[in-house]
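Q: Got a minute? One more chain.
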Amino acid sequence: MSGVHDGANEGGTGLAGFRRYTWWAVPGTNVGVLILFTGEWILDGDVPVQPRLFSAAALVVEVTAVVALLNARLAAGECTARPRPPAGWPAAGALAAIVLAVCPLTLRNYGLWPMAPAIMTAVAATYLDGRPRRWLIIGATALAALPGGAVSLVSGDGRLVYAALFPPGITAFVVWAMLGPLWAWDITGRLDQARRLSAELAVKDERLRFAADLHDIQGHHLQVIALKSELAARLAETDPARAAAEMKEVRRLAADALRDTRAVVLGYRRTSLDDEIANATRVLASAGIDARTTADPAAIGDAARHLLGLVMREATTNLLRHSRARHASVDYRVTGGVARLRVTNDGAFEVTAGTTSGTTSGTGLRSLSGRLRAAGGDLTWTHDGGRFEIEASLPADGPGNEEGR
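A: Always. Here it is, folded:
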């Protein structure tokens, strides 16, 4: 099961669905509109054959260019630097758009000719930022009034207002309709990065907390040991008896330091199930995982609470490191004098639970299973497809011999 990996942990936030929707909607909508309106004109038997043939060839080129350019833009949506378009496609798309504009315009089809240039303008705008984008949109919208207006004036067909105003309107609309979803796409990418960073910071906070506890313990003991060792060295010749007593004290302090260090490593000096469930909920939410928690407030013994807290911590670590989970559930309840903890998630990788990183430090699932059995409980885990479940059970008032291990 796994940490946050390239936006995979988006469950419970709708990001995965939004991304799929945007990926299909932006290229799909523009290509669909282009094919629908231009294709209808190409298939019209009243249109001369030569413009239809030119338009059909240009339509294939522009559709391919639009798909290639928008896919490249969407794939680079989370980059901090504005991506560059794939070589060759902007020029090919622009030439195809000119052909798709000229052919209908020569036949005074003022509603169709601006469609292809408007789409290519919008695609080009997605690769620009700030002032260059604004100037492109303003210039393209203003210039769109000229070709149709000029043709209408020369032909004297009496459609000047429509020929001059409709193309700028359709250009502005197409640009707005494309840039809106892509703006939301970019914001979504930044939010996803922020969530991943939040999850990483939560893990680092835990490491800092551990380091602070270890520093407090080791710093105090080592300072006292150093002082007493120095005193014993000075007394070795003048007062051997007192020097021996000081060295015995040094040995006791070293044993205390070792015991306290083990306590920190294995349980942060008193792992609490309540704290671990709360911490897991916070960390999983930061990772974008929809975590549902059901906790029974019934009181249980300190030893059981400590061991179940270790199980909760290991389950959370496994979930972050070895899955691309979208949903997780934590169920803790006490029934019939037995405390049961069940942690379930989807998106699990194919891994061996006993080989998790925690095993070497005494808190892997296999190690914890042995500790729970020694305390009269049990720990099992199942991996069915992408679903992973860990279930731990302990007597609610179990023995306290596990408390300080």
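A: The two ends are 27 Å apart (CA to CA).
Q: Perfect, thanks.
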